[in-house]
Amino acid sequence: MKMKKGASICRVLAMPILLLIAFCLNFRIYSQECPTLISPLDGDTDVPVDNLIQWTAVDGIIGYLVSLGTTPGGGEIINRRSSGLNNFYQPEVGLPSNTVVYVTISLFLPDAPIKVCPLRIFTTETVTTAPDCTELINPLNNEKDVLVNSNLRWNYATGATDYRLSVGTSSGNYDIVDSQLTGNRLVYGFGEPLELDQEYFVLIVPLNENGEATGCIEERFTTGIPTVSCQDSDFPTITIPDQIGLCEDQGFGIIDSKDIARGYRWIFIDSDGSETILSEDSQLRYERVGQYRLELYNILNQFGGAIECPVSKNFEVVYSETPIISDVLITRQNSGLTLDIRTESSGSFEFSLDGPNSNFQDSPIFRNVEPGERTVYVRDRYGCGVVERAIEKELSPQDFPVFFTPNGDGYNDFWQYRKPEDSNEIPYEVIHIFDRYGNFLAQIDPTSTGWNGIFNGREMPASDYWFRAISFTKKEVKGHFTLKR
């Protein structure tokens, strides 16, 4: 069946009504006519470079896409730019002069692919004069309280193909941007934020192949003046110690600040007073001793600028080392033991009887310690290691000599507990001595010179004798030894 423009088919009553409506709608969309270029007209010549591009309105669409190119179907000038439902588009930076411009209008259709309409062309005029001057639109001339992260924007100067930009902090002194060509653009962004409470001077000179605009006026604006100041609650809390250790057996150390702040700066202070920033996060890796400073800061923002609320503290990195226990001096009193821990090196150590991870004290002396098997711990306070040493070892008959010779020659004349070479500790409280029949002969103090082989004023004969040693923890050790004459 032959059909004419979509509406005629709608009179076919045999089709179901819903199918008929859908068919009619789709037919109308896909048969949608393309617009006609009306400004400029298709094929026009000597078109002004700032001409508004306009076309006839099309019903039943949801938007337009515009492309302007210097080649058929190209988008070298603008590429697929949306104009919404406006049937016109104003190129922001104008059109190139003496150029054939290809126009492509595309239609956004509801529930259908984009429809690309046939090309239209026109030729722009030949610009023979330099452009006129332009003016700032952001910020405006003499504007106050400008955000420090603002971009400069200016109006298009008809016929301009480039702009020469100068920016400075005083009139005629362009110390920020000096005669920089921006290209055919109407915006300039600074690489870094501007200063707060600072007046800036701007000169924009449009230009093209015929020359530069003349008589352009310098404009100015001023960034915001901060009205906020740091309060006590705005400053971070800093808790770094006065000294930090660098372990001599390691090439570096790492310290991690647990203080909460927006920013961190770890600074090394050289002997000549010069400073070097080593890190700007919460962690520092350090490799040498000397003077350092930690700076923490929070930030308040106003007018796009940042105001720091800083605190700082100097600290020193010093060499440190793993401690070495040289001895534990033990003094026994009625109230308990007194322990005096001696170390070989003079580092910064702390001491504990309770384990390698808790309850350390600065003093190496412990008083009123209950007798028994104990272990002392010494820890380098800078984290260079922990060492330990038992101060009452396992008791054994081997703690005592197997014989002695009380003949008065000055050698081996007394029998007594034998202290180990690496400790002065005496774990025993009393020692009893018996003959081979179990008769009690002597009670000796383990801290005395010992038994000389005499009982009731007479020398005991060469023979085997027995002993019973009782420790401070009431443990008993039994054994025998030989008296030789």
Task: List strands and helices in order, with pairings.
Elements: H1 17-30, E1 37-39, E2 53-55, E3 63-69, E4 78-84, E5 88-89, E6 100-108, E7 115-116, E8 120-123, E9 136-138, E10 143-146, E11 152-154, E12 162-168, E13 177-181, E14 187-188, E15 199-208, E16 211-212, E17 219-223, E18 243-247, E19 253-256, E20 263-269, E21 275-279, E22 283-286, E23 290-302, E24 305-320, E25 325-333, E26 336-343, E27 349-352, E28 365-369, E29 375-380, E30 386-390, E31 403-404, E32 428-434, E33 440-444, E34 454-455, E35 458-459, E36 463-471, E37 476-483
Parallel strand pairs: 10-17, 18-24, 31-37
Antiparallel strand pairs: 1-2, 2-5, 3-4, 3-6, 6-7, 6-8, 9-11, 11-14, 12-13, 12-15, 15-16, 15-17, 19-22, 20-21, 20-23, 23-24, 25-26, 26-28, 27-29, 29-30, 32-33, 32-36, 34-35, 36-37
Count of the domains = 5
**Overall mean confidence score, pLDDT:** 89
CATH architectural designation of the largest domain = Sandwich
Would you identify the regions where 5 or more consecutive residues have pLDDT less than 50?
1-30
By CATH, the topology of the largest domain is Immunoglobulin-like
- Corresponding CATH superfamily of the largest domain: Immunoglobulins
Strand count, sense and closure of the main sheet? 6 strands, mixed
Supply the number of helical segments.
1
- Strand portion: 35-45%
The N- to C-terminal Cα distance equals 144 Å
Helix content range? under 10%
- What is the structural class? mainly beta
C-alpha-based Rg, rounded: 49 Å
Apparent shape: rod-shaped
Q: Quick one: how many beta strands?
A: 37
CATH classification class of the largest domain: Mainly Beta
